[in-house]
Amino acid sequence: MDLRFLRSFFANPMRMGAAFPSGPLLAGQITDPIDFARARVIVELGPGTGAFTRMLEQRAHPACRVLALELDPDLAVYVAARYPRVEVINAGAQNLGEVLAERGLGQVDAVVSGLPFANFSAHQQTSVVDAVLAALRPGGAFVSYSFVHAQMLPTSWRFRRNLKRIFGRLDIYPVLFNAPPALVYSCVA
Ligand SMILES: C[S@@+](CC[C@H](N)C(=O)[O-])C[C@H]1O[C@@H](n2cnc3c(N)ncnc32)[C@H](O)[C@@H]1O
Fold first, then answer.
1. CB of 4 closer than 6 A to ligand 1?
2. Average pLDDT score, the chain
3. What is the DSSP string of 134-173?
4. Which of 45, 46, 136, 153 yields a CA-CA distance of 20 to 30 A from 96?
5. Can you give the residue range of the structural domain that contains 69?
6. What is the domain count for the chain?
7. Smallest CA separation from ligand 1 atom 4, residue
8. Which tens digits make up the pLDDT trace of 63-87?
9. Which CATH number covers residue 111?
10. Half-sphere exposure of 177 toward its Cβ, with a 13 Å CA cutoff?
11. pLDDT at residue 152 tops 90
């Protein structure tokens, strides 16, 4: 087992939000809503050690740019070395607009999130979701997840309410064979 994830969790449990990386079934479900044949820019927020990054690298069209924004500098270096096709940026998800502008990128086709939104303040949740909405092209996908056990937290409900309000519709898919079991949140801009 890769201890890097666990080390980052002990160093900053709120920022990591999980002690172990997501499993392959969750990584599959979280990338399924993306139209890979059409997508030419995909962004990942909070790649951690790369559970979703790996799937994005495998499934993305050869002409598609894949960007990943990771706040933890050590994990950013690790993911960049492990997935050379992915442009890893050591930056906060809320700075997505600046990151895209610096690279001359306009709207993106999909944003996949591994962020622990239930640990975020109301302001943090809104600023990231606003940045995502501003970045997505019409019809672009925003896919995120939350753990089933986190559903008892008011912060988790606030995030779900915000997604419904901002995107108008939220589709939820359970992924029970993940440790811990999770819910995938899928929205369309
Ligand atoms: C639960 S881990 C998810 C890792 C991976 N996606 C997975 O599912 O295994 C959350 C990741 O989000 C990163 N993170 C937390 N807040 C962030 C922020 N505001 N911007 C970018 N990354 C952030 C953490 O450093 C951590 O790597």
1. no
2. 95
3. HHEEEEEEEEEEEEGGGGGSHHHHHHHHHHHHHHS--EEE
4. 153
5. 3-188
6. 1
7. 48
8. 999 999 999 999 999 999 999 999 9
9. 3.40.50.150
10. 5
11. no
